[in-house]
Amino acid sequence: MQADRWRAQYLTDLVREDVLEFSRVQEIGAMRLFVEVLRDRVGSPLSLASIARDLAVSPSTLQRYLDILQALFIVFTVQPWHRNIARALLQSPKVYFYDTGMVRGGDGPRLENAVAAMLLKHAHWLCDARGLDASLHYVRTKDGAEVDFALAEQGELTRLVECKWADGHPHRALTRFAQTFPEAEAVQLVHDLRQEQDFEHVSVRRAGPWLAGLSA
Question: Which pLDDT score, from 0 to 100, does residue 91 have?
């Protein structure tokens, strides 16, 4: 496809030209491989140490690459929710692309990436238009229970959002966290959904109309 060819050329130009304006990056091949790895890991907590071993570079080098990609608005990170911000930053972020077409792995990861981008835009609107301290996170416990996204305003969770391609049954972790944070709206967004439903703690909604209703 022409769009795929454009993206491939775009990555090449990004690494060879734009990135070099931000830093004296000598390992152009490693930078390109890092981007390719990120394309396959959208929606998963990012372990720079693990990727560094695979690419035979240091974690600090990959962190520098990640900072450059964020500065160029190629990717953005979503940090885990924790009231103690310093502790949250020590945990693994998740990485998403501003261009959803960069995502590999099928419809599910592309949907999650699209939702992440729209929720981030909504959080920015809350900051810019309403003057709120709004931020986008995800929620994960030590036992592995996870909800894709959590919107926070003024230091409190206001929305819990889980993404599914076709599963209309409430996600177990979403139900669990909805009970833990009863003040937050808990919604499961489904792309291919026959009927919207309201359960005791969770609303199941068609992804498109719900996202269209966000401000921004």
Answer: 76
